[in-house]
Amino acid sequence: MKKWVIGGAVLVSTVFGSAVLADSALKLVVNGSLLGEQAKVQLQDGTTMVSARSLAEALGAKVEWENETRTVRIDLPDASLQKGQISLLEKAVAPATAKAAAETWAEGVKTRNGALQYAVMSKELRDKERENFEAFHWVTGTSSPWVDSYKVGEGRENKDGTLTFAVELVYTDSTKAVSTSTQEVTVAKQDDRWYVSELPGSPSDPGVDEFPYDHVTYENQYWAYTVTLPKSWYGQFLAQESETKSELLFQSSTGLKAPIVTIHSVPAADWKQDEYGQLHKLGEKKGRVYYYVLPLDNPYEGREVDAYGRMVQEAKEAMKTFQLP
Questions:
Q1: Nearest-angstrom CA–CA distance, 42 and 26
Q2: Are 146 and 164 in contact (CB under 8 A)?
Q3: Exposure of 276 by Cβ count < 10 A (0-12 exposed, 13-18 middle, 19+ buried)?
Q4: What is the pLDDT along the chain (325 residues), one digit of tens a residue?
Q5: What are phi and psi of 317, to 5 degrees?
Q6: 311 FRET partner, CA 20 to 30 A, in 8, 97, 120, 201?
Q7: Distances 137 to 33, 112, 113, 115, 132 between C-alpha atoms, Å
Q8: Residue 111 class from Cβ within 10 Å (0-12 exposed, 13-18 middle, 19+ buried)?
Q9: What is the pTM (predicted TM-score) of this model?
Q10: Minimal CA–CA distance to 167: which of 209, 120, 127, 129?
Q11: At a CB cut-off of 8 Å and minimum separation 6, what does 201 contact?
């Protein structure tokens, strides 16, 4: 663990590489996440001040206060130790047989575990796909439909010594509908272990040549409401949820995110239509009101405007399919 010791004042004016400070709005964004009021961001004589605890904890550090010496102790996790741990775990799951490599990859797809898929990839494929996995926070596929099961056939040997397996993925959803999609996964031997060396797709769409459904169903994990989304959204959106809202985000090819639509859930007593009509009521049940809000502008300024703008327009129609359990 790396330690910082700060005596006396507990406000830090250092600007870290992973933090972005905006003087006008006095916001603090750490690794893409906006810190709340507890960060106590202030501008004093041209210097940005922020709570040591809020900033340190946002960076994954452990913070302790020693009252006797009036000292703040900040312990940062050792990145080299974490990398070593991950490396050993990846070696532990490295398949000993060619078919096991294809099966482990298929299990990662079924469980939406991008880290497991990544662990059984060749170095070349890792270099190609790492940014995509990170952009989706190592979670692949969608919550509905999902891969219910898979079957890996016998491999065929290629001239270069690699083997190719046909992997059948069986999809289902809350209606119990079933559909299948078959992909070919190629594996190669490296250092006495077998790794996936070639896939027909990407982490957001893991090897699926043709998405087997005509729509995507989004189901909220807190209130279980559902929304039917266009098939074209598959692999292009993320859902960030809390107990009070669900934000469906467009995921750009460069890793940037922008809100497509936000669905809010509030107690009925707190619901009030705004004077501009930007809050669109979806329904009410058991003392809670559900409504959605669309973004006011396009953040891409010419980059991927077509895809993002199309999805915002489609969101209006998608909200008509909103259903409470």
A1: 7
A2: no
A3: exposed
A4: 444 454 443 444 344 434 444 444 567 777 666 776 667 777 777 777 888 888 888 777 888 888 888 888 888 777 677 788 888 888 898 999 999 999 999 999 999 898 999 999 999 999 988 887 887 778 887 777 788 999 999 999 999 999 999 998 888 877 676 777 788 999 999 989 999 999 875 444 444 445 667 788 888 888 999 999 998 887 778 788 888 999 998 876 555 678 899 999 999 999 988 888 889 999 999 999 999 999 877 665 555 457 788 898 899 999 999 999 9
A5: -70, -40
A6: 201
A7: 13, 11, 10, 9, 9
A8: middle
A9: 0.52
A10: 209
A11: 183, 207, 208, 209
Secondary structure (3-state) at 285? strand
> CA-based angle 126:127:128, to the nearest 5?
90
Strand order in the sheet with 47-51: 11-12, 47-51, 42-44
Amino acid found at 67: N
Phi/psi of residue 293, nearest 5 degrees: -135, 135
Q: What does the block give as tokens for 248?
A: 């469906």
